Structure formats: structure tokens, C-alpha cells
Amino acid sequence: MLEKMEERFDAEAVIGEFESLSRDAGAVQRETLQKILDENGGTEYLQRWGLNGRTDPDSFTNCVPIASHSDLEPYIQRIVDGNSPRCLTGKPITTISLSSGTTQGKPKFVPFNEELMESTMQIYKTSFAYRNREYPIGNGKALQFIYSSKQFKTKGGLTAGTATTNVYRNAQFKKTMRAMQTPCCSPDEVIFGPDFHQSLYCHLLCGLIFRDDVQVVSSTFAHSIVHAFRTFEQVWEELVTDIREGTLSSRITVPLIRAAMSKLLVPNPELADTIYRKISGLSNWYGIIQELFPSTKYIYGIMTGSMEPYLKKMRHYAGELPLLSADYGASEGWIGANVNPKLTPETATFAVLPNIGYFEFIPLREDLNSHGQEAKPVGLTDVKIGEEYEILVTNFAGLYRYRLGDVVKVKGFHNSTPELQFICRRNLLLTINIDKNTEKDLQLAVESAAELLAGEKLEVVDFTSRVDLSTEPGHYVVFWEISGDPQDDLLQECCNCLDRSFVDAGYMSSRKVRAIGALELRIVRKGTFHKILDHYVGLGAAVSQFKTPRCVGPTNDTVLQILSVNVVRSYLSTAF
Ligand code: AMP
């Protein structure tokens, strides 16, 4: 059904389909599991667990163990090497995705196939249908800050690339974007360019050339939008010159990009004057997106989880334009669509699509996880509102009861399918002894301390942290890049506030008895976090999927090195 909609997007049909799927989510889950096991039950991996042809949820969860990426790695490696393309799936895997790698320090390989591509399109279309009902867009273009990294061949001849690259390079992606009236305003040569700095410059240029057609400004993760407009602040005069003269800046050196851009660039002094005037009228870049792209209806991208720290800056650039948070998924597969576009990014939820995988949820309530034993996972329709869970995914691409590593909270139900709020990655970020602080705890601490800077009209551009065990006792170190140059006493106050804002009982009690040393705030030079981004891109990560690592592990030498050589000031907390 969805395939027929590619030519003309029929929002009501898409909504009808999701309403029907979500009304009987339990039955759809059982059918989906049956389909996955029918197709893949004969594989080496599933054979190993003695399902013997059974496809019901009880047999499945009793026989097949919960797995993390490291459990599946030997199988995936054999697929990558071309030794056994069917060890996880009935149909051979021919494409591999590299996950962003910013959470673990190095990219992981995961299988990718047509079913994942289809579910990606189903998610895009579903959320678009609901979004378009609230915020209709006309025929136009999208200024999309998307970047595709290189695809390469593995030893076994499989195509490998980041998940977003595999999606952008698939013909279905373009068709779907066209059907949703939001083709990207940049030519393919820009999206697929080998140097993302050059691609970003050209995305901005294309956006300006098509400024009246731009209906939506988007990226996969919000970080790319903020990064793009921070760059715009630096290069805007050069962009205006290019438009005025109809020539492309010499900073663009890739011949294919130059050739593609030359087809779009003609001398246009009138447009250059308009842009110049608009920018001159801005105060501290507030509302730049609205000013430059007057037909824009909203800004779209993943704004939840580790993207929340960029919201403030994004609101600043967006002016009055609404920020709409995009769907929830991973390189390993999609989970849910945002079908309530009116919710703010801070409250956004994702309704699980019950036909794209079989989902289980490990309850995280402490009393259920006693004596080091984890609680038993529950099915999709058995989750409880208000509770937090770790999510397990079984999908059509060879993952069975796979720990995605994310913590979600059930906020409600859409018909009978749960609406999830993303909470954080499950692995602990900061821990020295009995203290436990997650990505979310760090984010909240940084938010409160950053309030103190706001009075001076300064902001935290980006941040990360590490545990320093070279001192006795060990202590937390938080790295900040900030927009200006505040007085020492203000930063000392920020440092104390950070220390006090980790309200975890284990941390506070350890601090009081000095079992954890004073928190250290280190201020790094402007541009340090761009260097970190460049480092990950150099390793093959996709800019489109980039998430600043919020905690740098002791073995991540290069990032630690980038941070340490760029420290310009540091403060030790006197809060305890
Ligand atoms: P990747 O490794 O690049 O495939 O990133 C996947 C991870 O990004 C997920 O496991 C989540 O931790 C995070 N993520 C994806 N979508 C969202 C979302 N809508 N909100 C918050 N975090 C998300």
C-alpha cells in the first residue's frame, strides 16, 4: 500500500494505516514476530536456540537469549567477510551500516536490508502525515543539512556505509522526499560530497538561492542545524559575494561539486542585497532562519536526548518558527514516529510502529531489579505509563532481542501502541564508586550551571566530561566551550553549581565524605568541539549522525588529547 503512495502522498491513507496498526498493536506484534521467525527461523543463529519452527512470543523469549552487539559481532563479522551471508537472516545481507560510533568510541557494524529501508520510509511518511495535518506545507523544497559519507566494499564484497548514507543513497529516499513535497534544495553532488565542510557551505548557498521555496529546514539530528548556522555566522559575507557575482568561492575545490553548483549560480545582485539587508537587521542572529527563508513552516530534526542541549540555540536561530522533533530510531532499525507534532521537543513522544519489529521492554524500576538480577522483559502492550524501560529489538535484519542501549519512558498510548519518551543511553557515564550519573544527569547539571552564564548573555556551546582517576580520590571533570569570556568568579560559581547539581545520593554522600574529589570545570578554546567532530568524521562517522560524546572514556586518547591541549582555564569546586 505504501509503495503506491510514492507518486502522490495520500496523508489520510497513511494515517488510516497507522491508526489500524496501532489499534491492535498486540496482534500486529505477534504477526510480525511470526513473519520474522518464518523468514529467518532456519538461520544458524536461530537454529542454535532450538526454536524448532515455533514462532509464538513465549517460545521465542524462552529459547532465544537477550543479546548485545558483542554477542552478535562474530556473526556480523562473518557476514562482513563474506563467509556466511545468511547466518542471521534467511535472505543474504548485502549491505552493512556503521552506527555513529560516538557513544562507544568506534563505529559498530550492523546489518542493513530492504526491509529496514522500507520501515525507514514508513516512519518518515507516518510522522509526515500527522505533521502535515497540523503544519501543512505547499510545494517547495527543504533546506536539509544532510551529508552522506563514503560507501565502501567490505572484504566480503558487501556495501558498507553509515545508516544515513545507506538511506540517502537508496532510490526510495528521493521518491519519498518528492512525494512529501520536500526535495532537498542541494544537488546530489553536495549531499554526497567527500568533504563535509564544502558540502555545508554549498547547502547554505543552495538554501539562499532557493530561499523563497524553502518550506522546511531540517537535518537528521539537531546538532547539524546548529552547526550549520554557527558556520553561517562565519561565512555569510562570502556566501553573499558568491550570489552577487555568480561565482563559487575558491574554498570549494571538489570538481563535481563546483560543476553542480555552477549550474545553479548566476549573478544576482538583487538577492545579494536582500540577504545583506536581512542580516544587517538582525540582532545577534535572532530569528535568522525565519528572516532568510520566509516560507519556512517549521524546523525539523531529532531534538530529544543528547540533542536537547542545542535547543536553546536552535530556538534563537528559529525565531518564532516551531521546532518539530523527528522520529526515534537507530542504525539498527526504527522504533517510533512522532505523531503528536505539536508537542514541544522537551515533551516529544514516539508512537511505536508495531509492524516494523518485535519490541520488548526491560523494566528498570529498582525494586524489580534486585540481587543483580534484571527484571523480565515485557511485551509492547504490557508496558505501564510512567515507567522506564530498556528497549530490546527483534527485526527483519537479523537482530534478535537486541539491546539497543536506550532508556525510554512510557508517556501514554496511541490506541494500543505505547508512546515513548527518550530518556538516555543506559550505560552510566560518570561513576567513581557508589555514584551513578547518566547522560541525562550531566545534561541537567550543565543546564543549571549554564543559567548563571545566561545573565551575562553567554552560553555553553558544547560540553563533555570524563572521570579523572589520576588524583586520589578520583573526581569528575566537565569540559565547556563557551561563547564569550566571563570573569573568573562567575566560572567558579558555575563550577560549584555543577558539583551541587549532581543530586544522585551516591555522588552527594561521596562528595561530603571526600570519597570523590572536587569537580573540575575546564574551559576549552573556541572551536574545540569542531575539532572533535572532525576527528570522528575522519574515522568514517557521518556528520548526519554525529552526537557529541558526553563522556570521554580513558582509552579515547585522541579526543582526550584534543580536549587537554585546548584547555584555557580550569576551576575546582569549593561547593562541598
Ligand atoms: P546511531 O548509533 O547513529 O544509529 O544512533 C542511534 C541512537 O541515537 C539511538 O540508539 C538513540 O540513543 C539516539 N536517538 C535516535 N533517535 C533519537 C530520538 N528521537 N531522540 C533521542 N535520541 C535518539
What is the strand and helix layout of this fold?
Elements: H1 11-23, H2 25-40, H3 44-47, H4 57-63, H5 69-80, E1 95-98, E2 109-112, H6 114-134, E3 141-144, E4 152-153, E5 159-162, H7 163-168, H8 171-179, H9 188-191, H10 196-209, E6 214-221, H11 222-245, H12 255-262, H13 269-280, H14 288-292, E7 298-302, H15 311-318, E8 323-325, E9 328-330, E10 333-337, E11 350-352, E12 358-363, E13 378-379, E14 388-394, E15 402-414, E16 417-425, H16 439-454, E17 460-468, E18 475-482, H17 488-501, H18 505-512, E19 520-524, H19 528-538, H20 557-565, E20 567-572
Parallel strand pairs: 1-5, 3-6, 6-7, 7-8, 18-19
Antiparallel strand pairs: 1-2, 4-5, 9-10, 10-11, 11-16, 12-13, 12-14, 14-15, 15-16, 17-18, 19-20
Helix pairs in contact: 1-6, 10-11, 11-13, 11-15, 16-17, 19-20
Residues 99-100, 163, 302, 304-305, 328-331, 404, 406, 422, 425, 545 line the site of adenosine monophosphate.
Describe the structure.
The structure is a single chain. This protein has helices at residues 11-23, 25-40, 44-47, 57-63, 69-80, 114-134, 163-168, 171-179, 188-191, 196-209, 222-245, 255-262, 269-280, 288-292, 311-318, 439-454, 488-501, 505-512, 528-538, 557-565, and strands at 95-98, 109-112, 141-144, 152-153, 159-162, 214-221, 298-302, 323-325, 328-330, 333-337, 350-352, 358-363, 378-379, 388-394, 402-414, 417-425, 460-468, 475-482, 520-524, 567-572. Helix 11 crosses helix 13 (269-280) and helix 19 (528-538) runs antiparallel to helix 20. It is an alpha+beta fold and 576 residues long. Mean pLDDT is 92; it is low at 1-6. The chain is globular and about 70 Å long. It binds adenosine monophosphate (AMP). Adenosine monophosphate is lined by residues 99-100, 163, 302, 304-305, 328-331, 404, 406, 422, 425, 545.
